[in-house]
Automatic annotation (TrEMBL):
This is Partially conserved hypothetical membrane-spanning protein. SMART domains: TGc. It comes from the Archaea. It comes from Methanosphaera stadtmanae (strain ATCC 43021 / DSM 3091 / JCM 11832 / MCB-3). It holds the Pfam family PMBR. Residues 530-590 form the Transglutaminase-like domain. PANTHER family: BLR5614 PROTEIN-RELATED, CONSERVED INTEGRAL MEMBRANE PROTEIN.
Length: 616
């Protein structure tokens, strides 16, 4: 015990002497041998005591590594694990230390505070990101010290909404990480990059934002679906996102002429919906709607379904080519087209065969006939020359779509050589596919024609001559321009008018002034019922206006766009009128509007600039 007292007195003497030379007399200074190691780890300091202070073999002052514990004042307290309570209580008044390193021959420990106070702060540049679920984004962060030096050899963690997604390394001030976004909902996510402490720098967290947008979608389905009345029919479609991947979730609804016939849930983007067809015969509007959800935007497909009362026959690509070769040979021998061509033991009319040929130029899939009708008006006036491949391929698309829409073939088509009538069109395409049949599937570079004319046939009613093959003059399912009530009103409104503009103005003003606006989506009533109700939304008012114009032999169509109204942005439909060799707007839904002058809204983005029929 006497030995301990002597040692303690010696220590206190050294302490008192050193304290007199210190700027802070509350701190104890200790000389440590230059071989002593000073280690700092996570705000905890370890050091080895000088042997001059630890000559007591009774473990009162142990010659071991001792731990510095951080107290609430952000200083460090030495814990020597002393066994002698008297000695510990005596030393307790001088337990706060600072580290001041001198790495020449010795280290002097003075004024100990948190080890982070001697380290540089860092900065992190982490941008915001916008993307879609499933996409790979490149996380590109820049990390520098306070003097702008790139940070090197630091550890980092990348987090999304607080959940660690990757442990990464910082090299030369850069952190680059390719992060594939899971199939997450479209919303905002918090990104966090945590860069750990190094020997010379403090740690730091940086936040930014990842905004996930919904993916746009498209519905891929045949433009014309065939169905036999009172038999089980099928609607097939594939729904893909804008990255050309099939969607993995979603609900769809299927409508015929605006009436829902069923719903279909898809988990793989494939629709294979079956139903019993009870609608009337002919070509009907088929609508497939994919509903918006947390991952994908909605999509709508507006096509046609052809309902016939006979068995639906399907033919292969090779069968169509072989039949074209026989039609070409028949024409060469007999100088005329056959009435029909036999394919797979079925009699196929020339109009149906034209549809099959036009479709086969763009698809090797099996194709069906549809009991299509012949036109009542044909004409021809062409010069000698060639219709080259690009042109006849485009013509084939126009022909097949027209037949799909209206259930009849065009009496004539306009080409670079002039006006080509139906039989000449069938002849030309049969010669093209016969060439393909005999040349291993290769299409000819052109189709040749000789000069030809054919008298024009028209349908005349009273003093009005109507070209019944112009889609902008034809009636449709919702634009009943051939209805007796529509025709009668159109005549009354245009009575005494001497110009197309005056006729169009009278018709437009009637719809604008006498048909009130009603808020609902898409077509609900069509032209005739809207006239009866004296009430309709933008679609039905457009149907009525277009029907009255067409009944007056004025070309009219539709436009569809996203528009800015005072109440916000909405989808909107209005009529287009062909006046003075140009299409002009005619929106009757506001009393402030007139032909060619729309004041009620402004166009934000187009969906359809001009069409002869809307299918929704």
């Amino acid at each position: 015990m006497l030995f301990l007292i002597i040692v303690f007195v010696s220590i206190m003497s050294v302490s008192a002497a050193d304290a007199g030379n210190s700027s802070n007399s509350n701190f104890h200074k200790i000389q440590i041998d230059s071989n002593t190691q000073n280690t700092i780890d996570n705000n905890t300091n370890y050091y080895k005591s000088n042997d001059n202070l630890n000559k007591n073999d009774n473990n009162n002052l142990k010659n071991q590594y001792t731990k510095q514990e951080k107290n609430e004042n952000n200083t460090y307290t030495k814990n020597n694990n002393l066994e002698d309570k008297d000695v510990y209580n005596t030393l307790n008044n001088v337990e706060n230390y600072d580290i001041n390193s001198n790495l020449n021959n010795s280290e002097t420990i003075t004024n100990m505070v948190s080890n982070s106070s001697n380290k540089d702060n860092i900065s992190i540049d982490l941008p915001n990101y916008s993307a879609y679920a499933g996409k790979v984004i490149i996380i590109n962060a820049t990390i520098k010290t306070k003097n702008g030096t790139p940070l090197n050899l630091a550890k980092a963690a990348f987090k999304v909404n607080g959940n660690t997604k990757a442990h990464l390394n910082v090299t030369n001030g850069k952190l680059i990480y390719a992060f594939k976004i899971p199939q997450w909902s479209a919303k905002k996510y918090n990104l966090t990059l945590v860069v750990g402490e190094t020997k010379t720098t403090n740690s730091l967290s940086k936040n930014s934002t990842l905004t996930l947008y919904k993916l746009n979608t498209t519905i891929n389905t045949p433009y014309l679906t065939f169905s036999q009345k009172d038999k089980v029919s099928y609607v097939n479609a594939t729904i893909k996102d804008q990255l050309n991947r099939t969607v993995y979730t979603g609900n769809t609804s299927i409508k015929i002429n605006g009436i829902t016939i069923g719903h279909y849930n898809t988990s793989n983007g494939i629709i294979n919906f079956n139903f019993t067809q009870t609608n009337k015969l002919g070509t009907q509007n088929l609508t497939i709607i994919y509903g918006e959800n947390t991952f994908f935007n909605s999509a709508i497909s507006q096509t046609k379904i052809r309902i016939i009362n006979t068995t639906i026959h399907t033919y292969t690509y090779s069968q169509i080519l072989e039949a074209a070769n026989r039609v070409k040979n028949f024409k060469d021998k007999n100088k005329r087209l056959p009435t029909w061509v036999v394919i797979n033991n079925n009699d196929v009319t020339m109009v149906d065969f034209l549809y099959l040929m036009c479709q086969s130029l763009h698809s090797n899939d099996s194709l069906s006939e549809g009991n299509f009708g012949r036109p009542s008006v044909v004409k021809e006036n062409i010069i000698t020359g060639n219709i080259y491949k690009d042109e006849y391929l485009n013509l084939s698309k126009e022909i097949s779509q027209y037949i799909s829409n209206y259930g009849v073939a065009q009496g004539y088509i306009k080409t670079s050589l002039g006006t080509l009538m139906l039989n000449s069109t069938i002849d030309g395409f049969s010669r093209a596919l016969a060439y393909t049949y005999n040349h291993n599937g290769v299409l000819p570079n052109y189709i040749s024609y000789n000069q030809s004319t054919y008298p024009i046939t028209t349908n005349t009613t009273g003093n009005t001559t109507t070209n019944t093959t112009d889609p902008y003059l034809l009636p449709t399912y919702n634009c009943q321009s051939n209805d007796a009530v529509i025709i009668s009103l159109s005549k009354n409104l245009t009575k005494g008018c001497t110009s197309v503009l005056s006729k169009a103005t009278n018709i437009f003003n009637y719809v604008r002034d006498y048909i009130k606006y009603d808020q609902y989506e898409n077509t609900r009533y069509g032209a005739v019922k809207t006239l009866s109700r004296k009430l309709g939304n933008c679609c039905d008012q457009a149907h009525l206006l277009v029907a009255l114009l067409r009944a007056a032999n004025i070309r009219a169509g539709y436009a569809h766009a996203e528009c800015q109204f005072n109440s916000g942005i909405k989808g909107h439909v209005w009529a287009k009128i062909y006046l003075n060799n140009e299409w002009v707007d005619a929106d009757p839904t506001s009393r402030y509007n007139s032909i060619g002058n729309t004041k009620s809204n402004t166009i934000i983005s187009w969906r359809i600039k001009l069409t002869s029929e809307i299918l929704f």
